[in-house]
């Protein structure tokens, strides 16, 4: 494999493993050996279901506005804000009126996200 295959672009809208998380929420997933990136696009006012997983997750709001629902709290986030979600903490995201784009980083990689499909994978 060429090292060029290890390079990607956040704005290209191509590549990765495609997954529909919920109505209005789609992602492109890029998996490595020890970490996984997920570029999530959330339609205006769309919201995912509350879920949790054992992997640690970091998120960065790249565009738009949103409310991060985490551990029972609702926290408004804007472009450039980032957060950590420890494994096992219930969470989801609700986009603002202009929608949102989020970069999620998981460690270790989530096994269920290594294949295309739908849903968040765990409850």
TrEMBL record:
TM ranges: none
Every Cupin type-2 domain range: 39-106
Lineage: superkingdom: Bacteria
InterPro entries registered for this protein in UniProt: Bacilysin_H2HPP_isomerase, Cupin_2, RmlC-like_jellyroll, RmlC_Cupin_sf
One Pfam assignment: Cupin_2
Gene3D superfamilies, sorted: Jelly Rolls (2.60.120.10)
PANTHER family reported in the protein's UniProt record: H2HPP ISOMERASE (PTHR40112)
Protein name listed in UniProt: Cupin
Species assigned in the record: Teichococcus aestuarii
């Amino acid at each position: 494999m060429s090292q060029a295959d290890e390079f990607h672009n956040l704005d290209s809208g191509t590549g990765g493993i495609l997954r529909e998380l919920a109505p209005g929420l789609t992602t492109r997933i890029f998996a490595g050996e020890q970490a996984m990136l997920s570029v999530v696009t959330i339609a205006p006012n769309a919201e995912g279901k509350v879920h949790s997983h054992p992997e640690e997750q970091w998120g960065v709001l790249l565009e738009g506005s949103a409310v991060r629902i985490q551990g029972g709290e609702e926290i408004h986030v804007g472009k450039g804000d980032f957060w950590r979600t420890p494994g096992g903490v219930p969470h989801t995201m609700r986009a603002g009126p202009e929608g949102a784009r989020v970069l999620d980083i998981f460690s270790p990689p989530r096994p269920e996200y290594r294949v295309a499909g739908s849903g968040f994978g765990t409850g």
